[in-house]
Design the sequence.
Protein backbone atom coordinates (compact mmCIF):
# COMPACT_ATOMS: atom_id res chain seq x y z
CA UNK A 1 0.00 0.00 0.00
CA UNK A 2 1.30 3.46 -0.84
CA UNK A 3 2.02 5.93 1.93
CA UNK A 4 -0.23 9.01 2.16
CA UNK A 5 1.17 12.35 1.12
CA UNK A 6 2.95 14.29 3.88
CA UNK A 7 0.37 16.98 3.15
CA UNK A 8 -2.54 14.70 4.05
CA UNK A 9 -4.18 16.16 7.14
CA UNK A 10 -6.72 13.36 7.55
CA UNK A 11 -5.49 9.87 6.67
CA UNK A 12 -7.59 7.77 4.28
CA UNK A 13 -9.39 4.84 5.89
CA UNK A 14 -10.02 2.07 3.39
CA UNK A 15 -13.03 -0.24 3.58
CA UNK A 16 -10.67 -3.06 4.53
CA UNK A 17 -9.17 -1.10 7.44
CA UNK A 18 -12.61 0.01 8.59
CA UNK A 19 -13.85 -3.58 8.59
CA UNK A 20 -10.80 -4.70 10.58
CA UNK A 21 -11.37 -1.93 13.13
CA UNK A 22 -15.05 -2.77 13.59
CA UNK A 23 -14.30 -6.48 13.87
CA UNK A 24 -11.51 -5.82 16.39
CA UNK A 25 -13.49 -3.60 18.77
CA UNK A 26 -17.08 -4.62 17.99
CA UNK A 27 -19.96 -2.80 16.33
CA UNK A 28 -21.50 -1.47 19.56
CA UNK A 29 -18.25 0.07 20.83
CA UNK A 30 -17.44 1.47 17.37
CA UNK A 31 -20.82 3.20 17.03
CA UNK A 32 -20.80 4.44 20.64
CA UNK A 33 -17.36 6.03 20.28
CA UNK A 34 -18.16 7.44 16.83
CA UNK A 35 -21.34 9.04 18.19
CA UNK A 36 -19.35 10.54 21.08
CA UNK A 37 -16.87 12.16 18.66
CA UNK A 38 -19.71 13.57 16.57
CA UNK A 39 -21.45 14.92 19.67
CA UNK A 40 -18.19 16.51 20.84
CA UNK A 41 -17.86 18.27 17.47
CA UNK A 42 -21.42 19.59 17.59
CA UNK A 43 -20.82 21.02 21.05
CA UNK A 44 -18.12 23.18 19.43
CA UNK A 45 -20.37 24.13 16.49
CA UNK A 46 -19.98 27.88 17.02
CA UNK A 47 -16.19 27.57 16.69
CA UNK A 48 -16.35 26.00 13.21
CA UNK A 49 -15.69 28.05 10.08
CA UNK A 50 -19.00 27.77 8.26
CA UNK A 51 -18.00 29.80 5.20
CA UNK A 52 -19.68 28.50 2.02
CA UNK A 53 -17.26 26.96 -0.44
CA UNK A 54 -17.41 27.51 -4.17
CA UNK A 55 -17.43 24.33 -6.25
CA UNK A 56 -14.69 23.76 -8.80
CA UNK A 57 -15.79 21.85 -11.88
CA UNK A 58 -13.59 19.55 -13.94
CA UNK A 59 -14.31 17.16 -16.81
CA UNK A 60 -14.50 14.35 -14.19
CA UNK A 61 -16.99 16.10 -11.91
CA UNK A 62 -17.12 18.57 -9.05
CA UNK A 63 -14.20 19.02 -6.68
Sequence:
Amino acid sequence: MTQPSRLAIVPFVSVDRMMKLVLAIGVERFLTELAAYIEEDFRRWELFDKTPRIASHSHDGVI
Residues 13-45 form one domain. The chain has two helices and two strands.
